[in-house]
Amino acid sequence: MAILGNIIKGVIELKDTFTSEVIHEEAQEQVLKELLEAAKSTQFGTLYDFETILEAANLQQSFAKHVPYFDYNKINKHWWHKYHEGESNVTWPGKPSYFALSSGTTGKTSKRIPVTDDMIDAIRNAGIKQVFALKNFDLPADFFEKEIMMLGSSTDLEENNDHLEGEISGISASNIPSWFRGYYKPGEEISQIEDWDERVQRIAERAKDWDIGALSGIPSWIELMLQKVIDYHNLNNIHEIWPNLQVYTSGGVAFGPYKKSFNALLGKPITVIDTYLASEGYIATQVRPETDAMQLNTDNGIYFEFVPFKPDYINEDGSLNDRAPALTLDQVELNQDYVLIISTVSGAWRYLIGDTIEFTNIERAEIKITGRTKFFLNTVGSQLSVNKMDAAMRELEEQFDTTIPEYTICAKRGDDDEFYHYWYIGSDLKGIDNSTIADALDESLKIANKNYKVARSKALKGVKVKVISPNRFYDWNERNKKKGGQVKMERVMGDEKFKDWEAFVNES
């Protein structure tokens, strides 16, 4: 009998009994007030007169009026660079204990995003919320006695003056509570290995020693780790070595594109729970099984605003122009793409995180990630967002009975000086020529997107497809960034990067 598991499950259910439902709109106004109060004496708070904003009759409206939008380049140039020059109280009281390194999906140079002690607390609280939400998924008591494999970046953080640096997954894992360490795998020693291939090799060697009940990490890297374990032990599927694996918490990207290839590594179905942990904070987590949408963490150190994702509001570099209106939670609508704007306990203010989302349930503040502002392809009016591209990949998977975990696209002129969409698709598909796949993809996008259909009848000449091994995408990430952690593949590339990509693919 799972005595400890029954106790833990009982505590989770009891806590829910005594916890009131969050009223998200009210929670957001309270969070904004707390943020402004905490930062009113900082350099940022003084310049933008947080004291006056706090006295306004409409706090949210006054905040939006007085404080401009910031993307990383803008806030780092004007504010965050001061931390590295020894200054304090810049955009948040004191100095950050950590900086999250994030090359994300947009470049080779790491961004350095401040992570304060208040943010560490907020991330931990959001993690606890996720644990308590497990009661909604009807998991057996013995699940709560199993070990959890968290595959992120190295927890061996680098010292830099008076702070530590690393990816957010490594920072979070290095701050797990002491009571959780007995459940946490691969453990501190292996997690500190910097080289991703070496770390995964050690995981494979030790896999038989662990009773894994849950996995956590970005889908592409979790898949590669599972395949390594399967190959090392000559297994048919991962459940042959981890028979009690029941839950996977995805993070950082939408799970949908990886669902088919991920399930191929399993021996039986498991529960998939989507989470949204970014370098800037723990944004949202799935709290119920009836949907794969995630609930914004509205009462936990992050204030959200939402800009309608329309071409008129987006600059070519993915930033927002001055005409872009910001909506609060009580103003949003269903099934509309929004650019996500956050203000946080790490001193990010009206910060463009780079993701687009849509609401699936406004009362519950539930969202889905729909793409990236820089991965919105609008050449010659095609208006393709990542969710439309992902949906097209799922259709190709079904039509050609294959898996497509990775892809990238560029819109550029061909040899005939006409515009084409050039797609590279990561799949082990064989025996079907690229032109057949291109025709199927083109037709799928015409049906799904009227703007694309119009573009195809005018300035967009056609679609070109090249199928390559998914491993080439992972090799590209390794060459340009590194393997594992928070690294994600660019879905849309500009001309210059696409030239580098094609040269890389064509290397012998």
UniProtKB/TrEMBL annotation:
Residue ranges annotated for the GH3 C-terminal domain, each copy included: 390-496
GO molecular function: acid-amino acid ligase activity
Pfam families recorded: GH3, GH3_C, GH3_M
One GO location term (cellular component): cytoplasm
Domain GH3 middle intervals: 298-362
Source organism superkingdom: Bacteria
The protein, known as: Putative auxin-regulated protein
Organism: Winogradskyella psychrotolerans RS-3
